[in-house]
Amino acid sequence: MDGVELFRYSKSIYGGSDALIGASWDLLPWFVGAGVAFIVVHAIAMAIFGRRHA
Amino acid sequence: MTVTSLEASAAAQAAPERVRRHRLVDRLYHWAMAACVLTLMATAFLPIVGIKFEWLTIHWTTGLVLTALVFFHIVRATIWQHLARMMIDLADIGNGWRGFMRLFGSGAAPGKQGKYNAAQKLYHAAAAVLVLALVASGLLMLLKIDTPWWRRNPYLLADDTWGLVYVLHDFAAMALVTLVMIHIYFAVRPDEWWASRAMFRGWITRREYDAHIDRGRWQADDA
Fold first, then answer.
1. Is the pTM of this model over 0.80?
2. What is the distance between the alpha carbons of residues B53 and B71, in angstroms, rounded to a whole number?
3. What sections of chain A are H helices per DSSP?
4. Are B184 and B9 in contact (CB under 8 A)?
5. What pLDDT, in 10s, does the model give residues A20-49?
6. Which domain holds residue B57?
7. What's B151's domain CATH number?
8. Count of domains for chain B
9. Which of B105, B170, B189 lies nearest to residue A22, judging by beta carbons?
10. Is B113 helix (H, G, I), strand (E, B) or coil?
């Protein structure tokens, strides 16, 4: 199984090594997912523990 | 009723019902920055997810506006505002620890906050790092496009160095998406609405001030 690429490269037209041109946009869903995960975990924790301390 | 309680009662009645939290200039800055960040995100990421349009000119001109706003904010915060209010101090760490332990049902309740709580200060620090990285890398990237003020010069840096600049810009932009999501989530939470509302109207009520704020850490009359 292929892993998630971290970087983007361009192919050298001269046959040399590939040039680094930026971060991989495949990571964007992971950053969005991290935000969603934080929000869900915090909301659940506050719903449970907030009620306990109310 | 004692003289002391009479004086306290009189002071409470004399205190204004509204406590200023954000001046108009700071609210305008906040919303202008929000508009810039959302515009920059839309012009950066919509083409990537398949919504194609002429994004580059909007992106770099908005980036220049954001740069000016950030410069304005740094100067204003350094000279005319209280930088220390945004710094995490021992009281924040103690409150954070008590709040964390309380999640597990033990320990005392956290103390009241200063003008900002520990989470807001942490968020501000993270956002500052990301936005400054974006501004610095974005200004460098401007040298690779033609503008009304200069011609592009892609040979200023070596290819590998340009790659690192782009990597920094890309990672900071994606991380900022996460931060913006978290920011909006906290802004709309009912228990944080008293603070969020102040970013619209500038003030909180005296009752909100008394409920949330440690007077020793933020005096209402020196907002």
1. yes
2. 30
3. 28-53
4. no
5. 999 999 999 999 999 999 999 999 988 887
6. 24-81+117-192
7. 1.20.950.20
8. 1
9. B170
10. strand
